[in-house]
Write a structure and sequence with these properties.
Elements lengths: L1 H25 L9 E7 L2 E2 L2 E8 L7 E6 L2 E4 L8 E8 L1 E8 L8 E5 L12 E4 L5 E2 L2 E3 L5
Parallel strand pairs: 1-10, 1-11
Antiparallel strand pairs: 1-2, 1-5, 3-4, 3-6, 6-9, 7-8
């Protein structure tokens, strides 16, 4: 009889541990983040180095982004973009062209931004990230910043 009670207790303990594990796994991605990837070109050529950001429209959501290398970017699902609508901002600079005496910059020298404001600080570029789909968004920037 004692052996039966011990076996029942162990079975109950294993079931509880299994349920805790499965419940814990379902919260590993509470924002339902999605992978996002694409290619970014400027005047038809891949941007060598830069960054891309996804800002949620409205007051809810989270900002995500990735680095651009050799024209491509990839946002890993672990740091991905939750489903919804986003404003896209692209930044890249020309390291060979430095701007001196920039107000507000502690170094006083920064590299010149080569992406026009319409694609970063004044962006009107939008995308929608969807659940369980391949979210591929290519960005073609036709002209360089002045």
């Amino acid at each position: 009889m004692t052996n039966y009670k011990n076996r029942s207790r162990w079975t109950a303990l294993l079931v509880a541990a299994s349920l805790t594990t499965f419940v814990g796994c379902s919260k590993s991605n509470p924002l339902n983040r999605q992978a996002v990837q694409g290619v970014v070109t400027l005047q038809g050529k891949p941007i060598t180095s830069g960054s891309i950001e996804f800002h949620p429209q409205g007051d809810e959501g989270t900002i995500s982004g990735a680095t651009i290398k050799d024209g491509s970017y990839y946002v890993d699902p672990s740091r991905g973009v939750p489903p919804g609508s986003y404003i896209v901002r692209v930044f890249a600079s020309d390291e060979d062209t430095l701007v001196h005496d920039v107000p507000g910059e502690s170094r006083g020298v920064v590299a010149k931004q080569i992406v026009p404001p319409e694609f970063n600080v004044k962006s009107q570029l939008y995308l929608t990230v969807k659940t369980d789909q391949k979210n591929v968004f290519d960005v073609e920037i036709p002209t360089m910043a002045n």
